[in-house]
Amino acid sequence: MRFNPRLSRGHAAIAAALALGAAPTAVLADRDHEHDRSTDGTYVAGDFHNHTTCSDGSTSMQKLVKKVTDKTESPWGLDWFVQAGHGGNGNRNCSLVEDETIATPAYPFVEGTGPNTTWANSIGVDAVKGNVGGTDTPLSTQADPRMWRWQSVQEISYPIAEYLTALKGVPVFMGVESVVAGHEHTSMSVITGQLPNAIYRNALPTTPGYTPLGNATALAQWLYCFDRGDTDTSRGGGQGWDCSVPGSANESDASWNATAAKLMPASGVGSGELGHAKTVEGLKWMAANHATGSYYVPAHLERAGPFNPDGNNGFNVEHLRNFNNAAPAVAFGFETQPGHGASANRGEYRPDRNTIGGVRVDSVGGTTWGGTGVYGAQVGGVWDALLGEGRNWWFFASSDWHNRGSFGADDRRSTQDFYPGEYQRTFVMVQRDKRHGKDKLTPQAIVDGLRSGNSFASSGQLIDRLAFFACAESKHKSARRADQALARLVLKAAKGNTDAEDELKACATMGEKLVVRPGDDVVVALAVRDPKGTNYSPYGFANPSLAQIGMTQPINMPVLDHVDLISGLVTGYRNPADADYAGAWPDNWVEDPDMARVPAAARNDSAAVVATFDASTWAEAGDDGQYKVMVYHLDSVTASQYVRVRGTNLPPAVPYETDADGNPLADIYTNANDTSKLTIPCQATGSNVPANTDDVPTGAAPIDGCPEHLPTVNGIKYVAYDVAAWADLWFYSNPIYVEVKGSTQVAGVN
Asked: In 3D, which of 225, 338, 335, 320 has the Cα closest to residue 282?
């Protein structure tokens, strides 16, 4: 059942007030309700999970950075960028560029080389440090050595990142997609030492070579110490690194390797449990040494299936709790809207993807659901279970860029990945560094923004502005006037791309909590911008998913259809010794998505969609119809709770896309890996439909018919790959907590 918002307090009056463009009026509230707001900042878009040839990507660092920060050639240019890549090792020199178009004075093109050139054929084997995995044999004795990522981050990638930051004025710093002991992958970084302010005052080189002023040594040491893919024993090639964690067993642990000075759990039976324990130690190390300068966000965490106590697979809900318990300022969310959005299996999730204990198991949830993993997409599921404890656990999205699949890196079509910012992006509230007369974004500001929870994620440019508040309702003026004033203020915040206004009193935004008295009324206000014009899709034909229900809407001009307000109760942290602390999501979820099958540990039965807004119930700004404003009332609250929002371009009951209540359905019906499941035909024809071998440069006219790379069954093209992603768009906000005095404390949020 879809719920509609309470409109009795003057939806029409709010719409009229916005249409008239009336000046904002302060929202008054009782002094006891006032929330201490931070100073105004701005939302900035970025990406922290992507790959170059330093790991298993297809492009150099310079090409990737150019693609994602250039706002002309690549119009989706990001405001900040963390260049990641797998832990472990790699044999290609990603500092070498593809051609003259990527060259810079410090990193020129060298004829006969490129980003696929090996270390042996560029810097030489003697420059490769560390030992052959698990031995004390130097890597330099090998003819074609693979460089440990700690060295490539410290000596190769970081200098490029610092140089490009100073050159372009866009912060580019180093992170890693860690190969996680006991699990699969995590997006993380330790930013200590990276991008000091002095880089903006330093003259850049005009000849080859760059000597950085900062460093990524702390990140490199973490990689050596805690990445599962790093079996080097050299202690940082002679840097004397010690991986001890204050207060832990360290050398007394049975997994401790004295030569390497780090935990090196044995494989086999129990290796998953031992690996998880090592991962928790890595979080403790970050909290002890870089408490505000690090983050740890499990990536595509449903993909590898459930946790395997004897191997390295996925994450159950208890592991996320363990991470947050060990380091709440470091492990504060998950990347449950994965990259690889154009792959044959969206997000690379699929049924029977993995084998655990000789048994074939699905990716958790079987597939993505509207491009989001089941942990984040299922109302009342894992994310709501964590929020129901009052944890600081936030939602993030990423690109996971590697390549374009069947196409070249400069083609606009894709059967694998989108560039960072091209399709998915995370918008984070930051405070800029205005020292030295410069308005600069710093790594610290970005990590602080990620940690704050004041962020939202959107795919396909469905929305690009959001202001979201919960406020204690005024007792000093009529409810209708208060709603009108709040609607104007939330609209002003959205237009200003900010979260805080001096006039907003007794309010909290995403990642914050509003403390009220029992029986108080709370008003929730939301404004979004559904940008007009085209998005970054290369396609201009009608959306095939909407064509099923008779709607004609260009796929590159999506329209926000509805927004759901989701709420759940907060009942407090669960004890690790309790039965409802741990539990795996059930297998075969696509065939039987029954919440009764989900263990109590992984669900929140109180979570539900409490209101749905659409064109009939939101108000549009009179001077700019791109902005939609929504107001909802929580009357006489008696229990602590949270609210969050999501939205989509798809109406309810779109076959194979949304159910009757507007929830996303499994993406298995648009996954090309199993053509027997393909269901949505793509029938548009056009005059600009290039062959698969043709290169389609950025900025070319839209492809106006179903592309040739779509799978064809019995002569019919079906929606899959990048077309499936562009057809099915969602945004998710992070939550706002409402703590009622005398009820459960929202302990994870200040």
From this structure: 225
Rounded to an integer, the average pLDDT of 238-256 is 98
Amino acid identity, position 341:
G
Going by C-alpha positions, the residue among 643, 645, 605 that lies closest to residue 380 is 605
- Asked if pLDDT for residue 5 goes beyond 60, the answer is no
Can you list the alpha helix ranges (DSSP code H) found in 497-543? none
Compute the distance between CA of residue 57 and CA of residue 41 in angstroms, rounded to an integer: 34
- DSSP secondary structure string for all residues of 266-288: PSSTTHHHHHHHHHHHHHHHHHH
> Which phi and psi angles does 394 have, rounded to 5°?
-110, 160
What are the structure tokens assigned to 277, written together? 């324990």
C-alpha dihedral over 133, 135, 139, 144, to 10 degrees? -60
Report the alpha-carbon distance of residue 697 to residue 706 in Å, rounded: 18
Residue 267 burial (CB count, 10 A): 11
CA distance 663 to 677: 20
Structure-token pair, residue 145: 């050595």
DSSP 399-413: --B--BTTB-TT-S-
State whether the Cα torsion 401-403-405-408 is positive or negative.
positive
Residue 453 tokens read as 């929870």
Q: Is the dihedral of CA 120, 123, 126, 130 positive or negative?
A: negative
Query: CB–CB of 456/724 below 8 Å?
Result: no
DSSP of 537-567: -SB-SB-HHHHTTT---BTTS----EEEEEE
> According to DSSP H, which parts of 149-257 are helical?
149-151, 158-168, 217-226
Report whether 395 contacts 301 (CB < 8 A).
no
d(Cα 219, Cα 282) in Å, to the nearest integer? Answer: 12
Q: Which residues of 133-150 are buried (b: 16+ CB within 10 A; e: fewer)?
A: beeeebbbeeeebbbbbb
Q: Where are the beta strands (DSSP E) in 70-160?
A: 80-83, 89-90, 147-148
Q: Identify the three-state secondary structure at position 86.
A: strand
User: How many angstroms separate the Cα of 499 from the Cα of each of 506, 510, 608?
Assistant: 14, 9, 26
List, for residues 648-668, the tens digit of each pLDDT value.
999 999 999 999 999 999 999
Mean pLDDT of 720-730: 98
Q: Residue 351 carries which DSSP code?
A: T
Question: Could you give the CA distance from residue 652 to residue 730 in angstroms, rounded to a whole number?
Answer: 13
Whole-angstrom distance, CA of residue 393 vs CA of residue 14 = 33
The pLDDT confidence band at residue 25, using thresholds 50, 70 and 90, is: very low
**Any idea which residue has 């229990």 for tokens?**
639
pTM over 0.90: yes
Three-state SS for 670? helix
Query: Exposure of 30 by Cβ count < 10 A (0-12 exposed, 13-18 middle, 19+ buried)?
Result: middle
* Distance from C-alpha of 451 to C-alpha of 462, rounded to nearest angstrom: 24
Which residues have CB under 8 Å from 617's CB, separation 6+? 4, 5, 7, 11, 630
